[in-house]
Amino acid sequence: MTKKGGSKHLKRNPAPRFWPIHRKEHIWTIKPKTGPHSLPHCLPLTIIVRDILNLAKSGKEARTIISEGRVQVNGRIRRTGTFPVGLMDILEFPDSNATYRLLPHHAGLTLHRIKGDEAGYHLRRIEKKTLISEDQIQLSFHDGTNQRLKTLDSKKITEDTYRTLDVLRFTRDGEISEHLQLQKGASAFITDGKNRGIYGTIEEIEAIPGKKKRQLLATMNAQGNRVQTILDYIFVVGNPKPTISVPGA
């Protein structure tokens, strides 16, 4: 009989290049389980605890820390070392009173330490809008979560104020507290491409009828430098000022 399903193992060499692991020291590494983020855009909890934060000397010790419930992701205790953590996720370590948010980096993802009440809200980008009933729409976000909302006129769903690639700010209770529109003057990160990790202000968004929105070009001012990228690579974090702390800002 043929094998069904994907492999449960991952070799170190084809692992994402931003993972801080030795490529030739060992053969195998941690493969993230299926979850809110795909393999090229996530970090397994074990690698964060052992290789990035140096809270453990071995994988076994890291798995013990995680299984004891000493790590929280977006306010929920995660006990599996293969759980994938990705863009804008919040990591909390109650024992050491340390909190981090995962932000884009030129190599992939980086942990940015945050303080105060910033851990109490989460940013999610709208990837898809779906009409699911006569008076409800469903918003699908970049981290695999969904939110159902009522609309006044189901036949005119485009009149809804939320647009794809906009960002919503959620409280810890799951309530929408702010709507960050993808528009001129907004603060944003570039999440992919050769300019990945750059933070700046959107100066211009091209308008070409018939062209897919995700492929439209946006021009950003990043500390005096003008860079261009497609809208699919932009993650808005403020309008106009960022709602989260930004490294170097």
Can you describe what's shown?
Helix 1 crosses helix 2. The strands form five sheets. Strands 5-4-7-8-9 form a five-stranded antiparallel beta sheet, with no helix packed on it. The chain folds into three domains: 10-114, Structural Genomics Hypothetical 15.5 Kd Protein In mrcA-pckA Intergenic Region, Chain A (Roll), CATH 3.10.290; 120-180, Beta Barrel (OB fold (Dihydrolipoamide Acetyltransferase, E2P)); 187-238, SH3 type barrels (Roll), CATH 2.30.30. It contains two helices and 19 strands. It has helices at residues 45-52, 59-67, and strands spanning 10-11, 28-29, 42-44, 72-73, 76-77, 84-86, 90-93, 98-105, 108-113, 121-133, 136-141, 146-150, 167-171, 176-180, 187-190, 199-205, 217-222, 225-230, 234-238. The longest helix is centred in the N-terminal third of the chain and has 9 residues, at 59-67. It has 249 residues and is mainly beta.
